[in-house]
Amino acid sequence: MKIFTCSNCQNTVYFHNRNCVNCGYRLGFVPQLQELCAMEPVSEPFWKPVNGSASQRFCANAVTDVCNWTVGAEDPNDFCRACRYNRFVPNSIDNWRRIGEAQRHLFYSFLKWNLPAQGRDVDPHGGLAFDFLEDQITSDGRHKAAMTGHDEGRISIRAAEADDLTRETVRSQMNEHYRTLLGHFRHEIGHFIWNKMVRDGGLLEECRAVFGDDRIDYDTAIQKHYTNGTPPNWQNEYISAYASMHPWEDFAESFAHCLHIIDALETAHCYGMALKAPHHDAIAADVDFDPYTVLDFDRLAETWIPLSVAINSIHASMGERPLYPFILSPRVKEKLAFVHKIITRQPVQRPFIQTPQMA
């Protein structure tokens, strides 16, 4: 995520800020500009960016301080480019606010790449929709946790995972190294992207050559995964244990990690980060480029790997778990490169390595 500057006083401001702490101006993220702008009122309900001319309205969710994005004056939708897909929202405003922050972070990347995001109004059977679901108490008094998942464009997120304690408990129970709201969004929308840009984009055979045959029965694959566990040496083939379950999950995990890496590199770029460890030439990196403009994924990986090693080492020095506990093996990098080519709309017809079918 980039660092923003208040367009009124040039103070540093950040993506989720509602007001500039220096000059007090109201801030709004304007999707058309991809900028967080100081806003000044025009006439109710319209605002415009300072030194700008295009009138905007704040997203309808700004009323409850859930969203700081704007909607173009001519846009018939009351909700911004992120919130307009929401069908069910949490009862808790605090949970909704945390979920909304992760959702807008996701859509920031979608705007940068102009990725497809047709809603149910355009595509009733496969368009994008978000349901933030509450846990339920059954008639016999049992607690039934809502499920996070994807079904033909419908993405459901368990609202309770906006609570740090709940999410950490689930992470520990499932023996996961990493679990975040933003990770959920990036993974689940990876399935939507597979539908729109692979299945419907005529790239099934190319994708199968990299990730394996998606026609493998999904329910059988789930049962096998949870009965037998991960295959031996899975780290050589997959970015995560969950990715080893089925080619669909492998693609979705790879999509999520592509976004993780590029977003983190953009942050590092905006902070001017560079690594040069004396006597350790392998731990060197200079993020002197905008990763959203780079088409060569190898360059991104070569910079990210030493940077992630340094970040993990800092976390260890503070007694924390590694921030990025994943290994980019040659096969994993090839999968990430394939996803990167799709989202940057590069040709993917070159010969890829056939994925071995692991027992």
UniProtKB/TrEMBL annotation:
Pfam families: Peptidase_Mx, Zn_ribbon_DZR_6. It comes from the Bacteria. Residues 4-91 form the Zinc-ribbon domain. InterPro entries: UCP012641, Zinc-ribbon_6_bact. This is Zinc-ribbon domain-containing protein.
